[in-house]
Automatic annotation (TrEMBL):
One of its GO terms (molecular function) is aminoacyl-tRNA ligase activity. InterPro entries: aa-tRNA-synth_II/BPL/LPL, HisRS-like_core. It comes from the Bacteria. This is Histidyl-trna synthetase. Keywords: Aminoacyl-tRNA synthetase, Ligase. Residues 12-269 form the Class II Histidinyl-tRNA synthetase (HisRS)-like catalytic core domain. It comes from Trichococcus palustris.
Amino acid sequence: MMNESLLANKQREMEFLHHFHQLGYDLIDLGIVETFEWTKLSRDDLHLMVNRHKWQSGDDIYALRSDWTNAIVRYRKQYHLRADKIAYSGPVYSLQSEKHQLGVETFTDSIPKQIEVLGDMIAFMENKLDLSLSVAVVSHNKLLKKILSPKELEDESVRKFITERNPDALKYRLGDDHPIIALMEQAPAKQAGYIKENYPELTAHLNELAEWEEALKRKQVDYVYADMLALPNQSYYKGIFIQLYGQNKTEPVASGGQYTSSSKAFGMAINI
């Protein structure tokens, strides 16, 4: 039985790579151990480093790969990789878990092209993995960045209370008159209207959010939910970020979003 399970996982991985190769994606494979220099760590590297298995030898830091997107961005910059669309597969390791990911990245600022890549991923999940996508949660990095200060966004207790939708704890931590409290007190369906009325400078981001909502609905996801209070699970997300859930699942089966490389980019990964 274990032999059959191992073979099935390897076959699924090969099917993924063959499938996206046939769609015109370039395939990439990178080493599990990454090398860093303290003086050249980016902000995103520092954020991820906290949760990595790492060790030091001389002036170099070595770490197990904890995130594919970060690794691909670093590789692309170092070796001037020109591929527009990339597919990959392999493990990532954090202090808490080990996951095997199948993922795609596209390096373009064209939202229709980014949405096309999202559609390729959803089609593979539904047609090749037989996953029925029940819920999509979509949000925008810029929303909470406007309402919270950088220090508040970095505060783990604040992030925890927002994730838990705990206004009482946030009032104690930030004060009764903090704008995040007023937003949280709005019904979810009215939060976008509240932001548009009180933060008109965010209207363009809300319109972009609506565009991705409509795209996900066209992909036949059962329920699409725009979450104004969602926090991205990676620091490098600079725009839209998305989580996809299977039927009766509490953890996302796939997640991704927009980030900045040498230009705007978008990536999505399946955890298997």
